[in-house]
Structure formats: structure tokens, C-alpha cells
């Protein structure tokens, strides 16, 4: 597969989500949420001074945006931001990526420690926020829960554990509770970041440690490898037929990420299996 550059000139991109006819994306280190059309044109949707990350949508179309540093989930209505839920009492460290299911329940990962200050690693929690803004712990003892996806039937959640070098899966109960944790795929040597799911249940994974995007099946078989010239940060399937894979790529070191001096772009390629589920 060959990739092409759709848009560049960003700082560090996270949380891509396809909605309608455009891609929503957080420029985490640029403090801005954008939408990007298929021709590469962009529109600024919101500014978040505490670093935007995960993006999702309530059933009525209202955008939800993670505000990392103040550990709040924001909603965007009429061009104005408001607090949807305050997660600070429930987590240690910054909050990060997110997926929102068809009922409007948001599942949000957290760091558990200050990565860039080189604090000692601590396991972290995933928080679930109901559509009316009530938050509770959904899962604990995760090794940095990061990118998250939900199967099309809404019954299974898959999360990338960046420091666990694996994808883990949970059963989703009728009330949104998570249980039955199991390994979806072991990824030795990898640092899985953002993920998305296709119609066959395959998961595209951004491996930020090895500068490659991979497609992996339940059980761990890797079926595709897509190296890029930069750090593979996040991905999303979308486009008119769901077969465009949007790749968030950043150039720079971990120190550059901490300092906000990376350079980021969106690349695209066409894949065989269209996207499905959430996101």
C-alpha cells in the first residue's frame, strides 16, 4: 500500500474520528480540534488550552472532546465548550483517548503517571461516562489504556495497553459495565497507541515505538504492515466507502513530543476492508 499526504502543518495529532463527510482530529500540542475534508481543507472547531485528545459523539451528534490536563470531558454545543464530566476525582495522571458507543457512553483511558516527567510507571484506570455526564471506573490495573474501539454489535470493547504491548478486550454489559477481560492480541516489541476496527473485526494499530501501522486479528495474527516515515500515532477508517485509512504521523523524538515541537501530518491509503463499529 502506498500513502499520500492529505494535510500537514500540525503539531501532534490524536483522536481521529470520521463523521459525516469529514475527519475530526485533535492537534493535541496545538490546542485545537479541526475537521479535515477529503481535499485536505481544514476548519478549526474549538480551542482547548489543556490539550485536546479523544473525540466522540453523543447520539444527537454533539461532539465530546477529552481535555487532558484538567481531566475533564467537554461537550461542544453551538460552537461553545462546556464540561460534560469531571474525571479528576477518579484518575491518576492525565486522561487521553476515548471511544463513544451508540448509546452515548464514553470510555476514556488515563496515563496513571506523568510520562514526560519520567515518573515511575503506575497502572491506570479506564472511566466510563454516561450520556448524562455521570462518571465511574469501568476497568482498573491497565498498563496505560490508550486507543479504544467497540465492535459493531456493541458487545466488545478493545483497548490498546501501550505499556502492556498488547490489545485487551472486555465484554460490555447492558448497563455499559466492562467484564471478562482477556488478551485480544499480544504485540511484542510494540507500543500500541491509537486503534480503529474494520468490518471483519480486524484492528488497525498505530505502533508509536516502531513507526508502523499494523492490522491484527483477534488472537494476534498480523495481516498487514504499513511502515511510515515518522511516529505512527493514531488511525481511523472513513471516507465515502469506509476504505480510506487516515494515518496520524509525527516527526520528532519523545523529548520533542513533551516540548510540543513535533511536526505532524495526515496521510491516507486505501485498504481492502471498510471500517465498522466505534469509532
How much is the radius of gyration in Å? 17 Å
* Structure class: mainly beta
Total beta-strand segments: 24
Specify the helix fraction band: under 10%
Overall spatial form: globular
At CATH level 3, the topology is Neuraminidase
Give the number of helices. Answer: 1
Describe the overall structure:
With 279 residues, the chain is mainly beta. The strands form six sheets. A four-stranded antiparallel β-sheet has the order 1-24-23-22, with no helix packed on it. It has one domain (4-270): Neuraminidase (6 Propeller), CATH 2.120.10.30. The two termini are 22 Å apart. The radius of gyration is 17 Å and the shape is globular. It is built from one helix and 24 strands.
Secondary structure elements and pairings:
Elements: E1 4-10, E2 13-19, E3 22-27, E4 32-36, E5 42-47, E6 52-57, E7 63-67, E8 72-77, E9 80-86, E10 95-100, E11 106-110, E12 124-129, E13 135-142, E14 145-150, E15 156-161, E16 166-172, E17 178-186, E18 192-197, E19 203-207, E20 212-216, E21 222-227, E22 231-238, E23 244-251, H1 254-259, E24 263-270
Antiparallel strand pairs: 1-24, 2-3, 3-4, 4-5, 6-7, 7-8, 8-9, 10-11, 11-12, 12-13, 14-15, 15-16, 16-17, 18-19, 19-20, 20-21, 22-23, 23-24
